[in-house]
Amino acid sequence: MEKQNSVAKVLRVIGIIIMIGGFFLALTTGSSQNLGMALPVLFSSFVTGMLFIGFSEVIALLQKIHFQLYQDGSKATASSSNEPEVDQPQEQKEWQPSPQDLEDIQELYQDQKVTKIEASPYEDYCVVQIEGKDHIEVVELGGFKPKKVTAASKPDLVNNIQKWFKNLTPS
Question: Model's pTM, two decimal places?
Fold first, then answer.
């Protein structure tokens, strides 16, 4: 059973009434005056009515999305209620950063010399090794611009990637 949104219903009805009313207003204007006066009335009422109908559709769509997220969220929390809620990325086997990602990482470290950029097994996370530094830095590529990930913000992820990188490179 799907719940109807009353605001969306009212906006849809208002849009239809505006369109029908504009049609009749254009008919009466066209019969009493010239046709040049009736066309703008007909066009403007049609556009205004369609705007109201469009807003009602947007509201109905947003409500469906809200209900779907609410139902999916309650199922997910019910199934994993004993697990801590951590935003942990899924481990992937093979992925490579795009050339644009590599350029963005170089811009992020423009004042330092980057010796190595390696894709980690976690999608959208890269390992950056800087010349003259013993440690590595983790960079997230998932947003508009790459950003450094610190051990304070995501300790498990950074530790896992550091362990992976130590096993990858010979000491």
Answer: 0.46
Query: For residues 84 and 162, what is the distance between their CA atoms, to the nearest angstrom?
Result: 22
Tell me how many helices (H) and strands (E) the chain has. Answer: 4, 4
Q: How far apart are CA 3 and CA 109, in angstroms?
A: 52
Distance CA 35, CA 67 (A): 48
Instruction: Quote the domain boundaries for residue 147.
Output: 99-168
Say if residue 100 is exposed, middle or buried (CB neighbours under 10 Å; 0-12, 13-18, 19+): exposed
Tens of pLDDT along 87-136? 555 555 677 778 888 888 888 888 888 888 888 888 788 888 888 777 78
Q: Which residues, in sequence order, are CB contacts of 62 under 8 Å at separation 6+? A: none
Cβ atoms of 8 and 28 within 8 Å: the answer is: no
Q: Is residue 106 part of a domain?
A: yes
Q: Is residue 93 part of a domain?
A: no
